[in-house]
Amino acid sequence: MTMVNPARGLGWAVLLVLAACATSTSPTGRTQYVGGVSQAQLEQMGLQAFAEAKKESSLSKDPQLTAYVGCVVRAVTAQLPAPWNQVRWEYALFNNNETNAWALPGGKIGVYTGIFTVAKNQDELAGVIAHEVGHVVSRHHDERITRQLAAQTGLGLAGALVGARYGDAATQTTQQLGGALLQGTFLLPNSRTQESEADVVGQQLMAKAGFNPEGAVALWRNMAAADANRPPQWLSTHPDPQSRLRELQARAQGLLPVMQAARKAGHTPKCR
Protein backbone atom coordinates (compact mmCIF):
# COMPACT_ATOMS: atom_id res chain seq x y z
CA MET A 1 0.00 0.00 0.00
CA THR A 2 1.32 3.45 -0.91
CA MET A 3 1.84 5.62 2.16
CA VAL A 4 1.27 9.37 2.20
CA ASN A 5 3.98 11.49 3.78
CA PRO A 6 2.10 14.09 5.92
CA ALA A 7 4.99 16.55 5.85
CA ARG A 8 5.22 16.35 2.07
CA GLY A 9 1.46 16.83 1.74
CA LEU A 10 1.60 19.82 4.02
CA GLY A 11 4.52 21.30 2.10
CA TRP A 12 2.66 21.10 -1.19
CA ALA A 13 -0.47 22.57 0.37
CA VAL A 14 1.46 25.50 1.85
CA LEU A 15 3.19 26.14 -1.47
CA LEU A 16 -0.16 26.19 -3.26
CA VAL A 17 -1.55 28.74 -0.82
CA LEU A 18 1.59 30.90 -1.01
CA ALA A 19 1.46 30.80 -4.79
CA ALA A 20 -1.87 32.60 -4.58
CA CYS A 21 -0.28 35.46 -2.62
CA ALA A 22 1.75 38.35 -3.99
CA THR A 23 5.53 38.28 -4.16
CA SER A 24 7.83 41.12 -3.24
CA THR A 25 11.56 41.73 -3.02
CA SER A 26 12.98 42.59 0.39
CA PRO A 27 15.60 45.34 0.88
CA THR A 28 18.33 42.68 0.73
CA GLY A 29 16.99 41.16 -2.50
CA ARG A 30 15.17 38.23 -0.94
CA THR A 31 11.87 37.04 -2.48
CA GLN A 32 8.98 37.41 -0.04
CA TYR A 33 5.41 36.17 -0.03
CA VAL A 34 3.16 38.97 1.17
CA GLY A 35 -0.43 40.15 0.82
CA GLY A 36 -2.16 37.80 3.23
CA VAL A 37 -3.85 40.94 4.56
CA SER A 38 -4.01 44.43 3.09
CA GLN A 39 -1.65 47.25 4.04
CA ALA A 40 -4.58 49.07 5.60
CA GLN A 41 -5.32 46.02 7.73
CA LEU A 42 -1.68 45.75 8.76
CA GLU A 43 -1.61 49.37 9.81
CA GLN A 44 -4.88 49.02 11.71
CA MET A 45 -3.46 46.01 13.54
CA GLY A 46 -0.40 48.06 14.45
CA LEU A 47 -2.52 50.95 15.68
CA GLN A 48 -4.68 48.65 17.78
CA ALA A 49 -1.70 46.83 19.30
CA PHE A 50 -0.02 50.12 20.14
CA ALA A 51 -3.17 51.50 21.76
CA GLU A 52 -3.61 48.35 23.81
CA ALA A 53 0.03 48.42 24.93
CA LYS A 54 -0.36 51.99 26.15
CA LYS A 55 -3.60 51.09 27.90
CA GLU A 56 -2.30 47.99 29.63
CA SER A 57 1.28 49.03 30.42
CA SER A 58 2.72 51.83 32.51
CA LEU A 59 4.35 54.66 30.59
CA SER A 60 7.57 56.21 31.82
CA LYS A 61 7.13 59.49 33.64
CA ASP A 62 10.76 60.46 33.13
CA PRO A 63 10.60 63.38 30.66
CA GLN A 64 14.33 63.38 29.94
CA LEU A 65 14.45 59.67 29.18
CA THR A 66 11.33 59.90 27.04
CA ALA A 67 12.79 62.86 25.12
CA TYR A 68 16.02 60.91 24.64
CA VAL A 69 14.13 58.05 23.01
CA GLY A 70 12.19 60.51 20.86
CA CYS A 71 15.39 62.16 19.69
CA VAL A 72 16.77 58.84 18.45
CA VAL A 73 13.45 57.83 16.88
CA ARG A 74 13.20 61.10 14.93
CA ALA A 75 16.80 60.92 13.73
CA VAL A 76 16.42 57.33 12.51
CA THR A 77 13.00 57.64 10.86
CA ALA A 78 13.99 60.89 9.12
CA GLN A 79 16.27 58.83 6.87
CA LEU A 80 13.65 56.34 5.73
CA PRO A 81 12.87 56.04 2.01
CA ALA A 82 9.40 56.42 0.53
CA PRO A 83 6.75 55.50 1.45
CA TRP A 84 8.00 55.08 5.02
CA ASN A 85 9.16 58.70 5.23
CA GLN A 86 5.53 59.77 4.83
CA VAL A 87 4.50 57.87 7.95
CA ARG A 88 3.90 59.79 11.17
CA TRP A 89 6.07 57.75 13.52
CA GLU A 90 4.91 57.66 17.13
CA TYR A 91 6.76 56.20 20.08
CA ALA A 92 6.19 55.31 23.71
CA LEU A 93 8.58 54.48 26.55
CA PHE A 94 7.18 51.78 28.83
CA ASN A 95 8.17 50.99 32.41
CA ASN A 96 9.24 47.42 31.82
CA ASN A 97 12.45 45.70 32.93
CA GLU A 98 12.65 43.55 29.80
CA THR A 99 15.50 44.39 27.41
CA ASN A 100 13.13 44.88 24.53
CA ALA A 101 11.76 47.26 21.92
CA TRP A 102 9.46 46.85 18.93
CA ALA A 103 8.06 48.65 15.91
CA LEU A 104 4.76 48.03 14.19
CA PRO A 105 3.12 48.78 10.83
CA GLY A 106 1.45 52.16 10.98
CA GLY A 107 4.56 53.81 12.41
CA LYS A 108 4.36 52.78 16.06
CA ILE A 109 7.45 52.18 18.22
CA GLY A 110 7.60 50.84 21.76
CA VAL A 111 10.73 50.93 23.91
CA TYR A 112 11.06 49.29 27.35
CA THR A 113 13.09 50.98 30.06
CA GLY A 114 14.97 47.72 30.53
CA ILE A 115 16.71 48.30 27.19
CA PHE A 116 18.95 50.88 28.83
CA THR A 117 20.75 48.10 30.69
CA VAL A 118 22.26 47.05 27.33
CA ALA A 119 21.95 50.24 25.25
CA LYS A 120 24.45 52.45 27.04
CA ASN A 121 24.54 55.43 24.66
CA GLN A 122 22.73 56.99 21.72
CA ASP A 123 24.50 54.84 19.12
CA GLU A 124 23.54 51.63 20.88
CA LEU A 125 19.96 52.81 21.36
CA ALA A 126 19.87 53.72 17.66
CA GLY A 127 20.99 50.15 16.95
CA VAL A 128 17.88 48.86 18.76
CA ILE A 129 15.41 51.29 17.23
CA ALA A 130 16.79 51.08 13.69
CA HIS A 131 16.72 47.27 13.88
CA GLU A 132 13.05 47.29 14.91
CA VAL A 133 12.13 49.84 12.24
CA GLY A 134 14.01 47.60 9.82
CA HIS A 135 11.45 44.87 10.45
CA VAL A 136 8.65 47.23 9.41
CA VAL A 137 10.26 48.60 6.25
CA SER A 138 11.25 45.08 5.23
CA ARG A 139 7.57 44.08 5.46
CA HIS A 140 8.33 41.31 7.93
CA HIS A 141 4.96 41.62 9.67
CA ASP A 142 3.20 41.21 6.32
CA GLU A 143 5.44 38.27 5.48
CA ARG A 144 4.96 36.51 8.80
CA ILE A 145 1.18 36.92 8.76
CA THR A 146 1.01 35.70 5.17
CA ARG A 147 3.14 32.65 5.95
CA GLN A 148 1.13 31.85 9.07
CA LEU A 149 -2.16 32.13 7.21
CA ALA A 150 -0.76 29.93 4.45
CA ALA A 151 0.49 27.41 7.00
CA GLN A 152 -2.87 27.23 8.74
CA THR A 153 -4.74 26.92 5.46
CA GLY A 154 -2.21 24.46 4.09
CA LEU A 155 -2.46 22.31 7.19
CA GLY A 156 -6.19 22.14 6.76
CA LEU A 157 -5.84 21.24 3.08
CA ALA A 158 -3.27 18.54 3.75
CA GLY A 159 -5.40 17.08 6.54
CA ALA A 160 -8.44 17.05 4.30
CA LEU A 161 -6.56 15.29 1.49
CA VAL A 162 -5.21 12.61 3.80
CA GLY A 163 -8.54 12.27 5.62
CA ALA A 164 -10.39 11.75 2.36
CA ARG A 165 -8.26 8.67 1.72
CA TYR A 166 -7.51 7.27 5.17
CA GLY A 167 -10.15 8.70 7.54
CA ASP A 168 -10.34 11.05 10.51
CA ALA A 169 -7.57 9.38 12.52
CA ALA A 170 -5.12 10.05 9.72
CA THR A 171 -6.29 13.65 9.53
CA GLN A 172 -5.55 14.20 13.23
CA THR A 173 -2.10 12.62 12.86
CA THR A 174 -1.33 14.84 9.89
CA GLN A 175 -2.33 17.95 11.81
CA GLN A 176 -0.20 16.96 14.80
CA LEU A 177 2.84 16.19 12.67
CA GLY A 178 2.23 19.27 10.57
CA GLY A 179 2.11 21.53 13.62
CA ALA A 180 5.50 20.23 14.77
CA LEU A 181 6.91 20.64 11.26
CA LEU A 182 5.75 24.23 11.03
CA GLN A 183 7.17 25.14 14.42
CA GLY A 184 10.50 23.38 13.95
CA THR A 185 11.39 23.86 10.30
CA PHE A 186 9.00 26.28 8.59
CA LEU A 187 8.28 29.35 10.71
CA LEU A 188 11.34 29.61 12.93
CA PRO A 189 14.02 29.54 10.19
CA ASN A 190 12.25 32.41 8.46
CA SER A 191 12.23 34.33 11.71
CA ARG A 192 16.00 33.99 11.87
CA THR A 193 16.20 35.22 8.29
CA GLN A 194 14.12 38.24 9.20
CA GLU A 195 16.26 39.02 12.23
CA SER A 196 19.42 38.95 10.11
CA GLU A 197 17.77 41.12 7.47
CA ALA A 198 16.65 43.64 10.10
CA ASP A 199 20.28 43.77 11.27
CA VAL A 200 21.40 44.71 7.76
CA VAL A 201 18.65 47.27 7.16
CA GLY A 202 18.88 48.75 10.65
CA GLN A 203 22.64 49.18 10.62
CA GLN A 204 22.49 50.92 7.24
CA LEU A 205 19.68 53.16 8.48
CA MET A 206 21.47 54.23 11.66
CA ALA A 207 24.61 55.07 9.69
CA LYS A 208 22.58 57.22 7.27
CA ALA A 209 21.19 59.04 10.31
CA GLY A 210 24.72 59.83 11.49
CA PHE A 211 24.91 57.28 14.28
CA ASN A 212 28.04 55.18 14.62
CA PRO A 213 27.31 51.72 13.14
CA GLU A 214 29.74 50.28 15.69
CA GLY A 215 26.98 50.97 18.21
CA ALA A 216 25.03 48.01 16.84
CA VAL A 217 28.03 45.76 17.51
CA ALA A 218 28.34 46.95 21.10
CA LEU A 219 24.59 46.61 21.60
CA TRP A 220 24.37 42.98 20.55
CA ARG A 221 27.55 42.16 22.45
CA ASN A 222 25.83 43.51 25.56
CA MET A 223 22.65 41.60 24.69
CA ALA A 224 24.56 38.33 24.29
CA ALA A 225 26.30 38.83 27.63
CA ALA A 226 22.98 39.52 29.35
CA ASP A 227 21.30 36.45 27.80
CA ALA A 228 23.26 33.65 29.44
CA ASN A 229 20.45 31.10 29.07
CA ARG A 230 20.01 31.40 25.31
CA PRO A 231 18.41 28.34 23.64
CA PRO A 232 20.31 26.38 20.94
CA GLN A 233 20.77 28.26 17.66
CA TRP A 234 18.64 25.90 15.58
CA LEU A 235 15.58 26.50 17.78
CA SER A 236 16.15 30.21 18.31
CA THR A 237 14.33 32.97 16.48
CA HIS A 238 17.53 35.01 16.61
CA PRO A 239 20.83 34.38 14.84
CA ASP A 240 23.68 32.86 16.81
CA PRO A 241 25.25 35.71 18.86
CA GLN A 242 28.83 35.09 17.72
CA SER A 243 27.85 34.87 14.05
CA ARG A 244 25.72 37.96 14.45
CA LEU A 245 28.55 39.94 16.02
CA ARG A 246 30.98 38.99 13.26
CA GLU A 247 28.53 40.10 10.58
CA LEU A 248 27.68 43.36 12.37
CA GLN A 249 31.37 44.16 12.84
CA ALA A 250 32.17 43.47 9.19
CA ARG A 251 29.32 45.72 8.02
CA ALA A 252 30.21 48.47 10.48
CA GLN A 253 33.58 48.99 8.86
CA GLY A 254 31.99 49.46 5.46
CA LEU A 255 29.32 51.80 6.86
CA LEU A 256 31.69 54.23 8.57
CA PRO A 257 32.01 56.31 5.35
CA VAL A 258 28.18 56.45 5.21
CA MET A 259 28.11 57.81 8.75
CA GLN A 260 30.83 60.35 7.95
CA ALA A 261 28.99 61.53 4.83
CA ALA A 262 25.78 61.89 6.85
CA ARG A 263 27.53 64.03 9.43
CA LYS A 264 29.08 66.23 6.76
CA ALA A 265 25.56 66.73 5.41
CA GLY A 266 24.44 67.97 8.83
CA HIS A 267 23.07 64.76 10.30
CA THR A 268 24.93 64.66 13.59
CA PRO A 269 22.63 63.31 16.30
CA LYS A 270 23.04 64.83 19.74
CA CYS A 271 20.50 62.91 21.75
CA ARG A 272 22.55 62.13 24.85
What structural keywords apply?
single chain, 272 residues, mainly alpha, three-stranded mixed sheet, two-stranded antiparallel sheet, 8 helices, 8% strand, globular, disordered N terminus
Structural notes for this entry:
By secondary structure, the protein is mainly alpha-helical. The protein is built from eight helices and five strands. Helix 4 packs across helix 6 (168-208). The model is unreliable at 1-20 and 154-190 (pLDDT under 50). The chain has helices at 6-19, 39-56, 63-77, 122-137, 140-166, 168-208, 214-226, 241-264, and strands at residues 22-25, 31-34, 90-94, 101-104, 108-112. A hairpin with a 3-residue loop joins strand 4 (101-104) and strand 5. Strands 3-5-4 form a three-stranded mixed β-sheet. It has a two-stranded antiparallel ribbon with strand order 1-2.
- Overall pLDDT: 78
Percent helix range: 55-70%
How are the strands of the largest sheet arranged? 3-5-4
Distance between the termini: 71 Å
Large-scale geometry: globular
The fraction of residues assigned to DSSP E strands is 5-15%
Number of domains: 1
Secondary structure class reads mainly alpha
Number of strands: 5
